[in-house]
Amino acid sequence: MSEQGSAHDAEQGVNEEHLLMLGKMLVGIAHELNTPIGVVSSVCDSLHRCQVKLRAIADKPEIGAEDLQEMRSILDRMDSGQPVLGAGLDRVTALVRELRQSARNDVDPEIGPVSLIETLEGDLLLLHFQLKQGVTVERRFEAEPQVIGRSVVIGQVFLNLLRNAIQAIDGSGTITLTVQQTDTEAVVTVADDGPGIQADVLDQLFNCAVTTKCPETGTGIGLVNCQKVLEKMGGRITAANGPHGGAVFTVSLPLA
């Protein structure tokens, strides 16, 4: 084979590898943007329905005391949706910024102190409308640690874990979110009282092709991405079944 032919084959191989990496990145982008975009869409739909109801009341020839009470209730719902909408838009903006920085070799994504409690509360706000009726979140914040990492990435890790916990619960149940701190790291556990993780899946849970969800709700890449980004920040993640059932995910991150 000529040198020109070898160079062409090498260039073609590089292009194919680049396309494969680009495809994986696009799948990851779609997966990570899905929740905040869904939040924005849900809140916009809720605000639209509130506006329709307010207009119907305003078009009445006479507005009574019951109408005023309903208007106040509608306005309260609109007020409660505004912070959720803001959080969703902020997360989309942060994700796009993170992706742009990651795509540029000359720019290192910012790593610095991250408030773990603020990040978790932001995730819970984003999941406000996804929490099923009867599913509660029990906060056990025994510390308020600052950790080293990238805020949007850490937020996405726990967003994935909390969303998985919500989907694992059939009917009513509890998600227990625990934050503890040692001399060197912060430890967060996300535990649900769902059916737990099957034994044959548990050992392979962080493999690319493994998912415990149906095709409509799972992609099999969320936990893999969580593990990879945590390792880059000096953290780690483990999975187990709780002593009384349900899945337990434990995330450790170095203190700032």
How does this model look, in words?
By secondary structure, this protein is of the alpha+beta class. The protein is 54% helix and 18% strand. It has helices at 3-58, 65-103, 116-126, 151-168, 199-202, 222-232, and strands at residues 112-115, 135-141, 146-149, 173-181, 185-192, 236-241, 247-254. A 5-stranded mixed sheet has the order 2-4-5-7-6, covered by helices on one side. A two-stranded antiparallel ribbon has the order 1-3. Strand 6 and strand 7 form a beta hairpin. Helix 3 (116-126) packs across helix 4. The radius of gyration is 22 Å and the shape is globular. The model is unreliable at 212-221 (pLDDT under 50).
> Given the structure, what is the number of helices?
6
| CATH class placement of the largest domain | Alpha Beta
Kindly, what is the distance between the CA atoms of the first and last residues, rounded to a whole number of angstroms? 56 Å
Number of domains: 2
Mean pLDDT: 82
CATH architecture of the largest domain: 2-Layer Sandwich
Label the overall shape: globular
Characteristic terms for this protein:
alpha+beta; five-stranded mixed β-sheet; 54% helix
SSE order and pairing:
Layout lengths: L2 H56 L6 H39 L8 E4 H11 L8 E7 L4 E4 L1 H18 L4 E9 L3 E8 L6 H4 L19 H11 L3 E6 L5 E8 L2
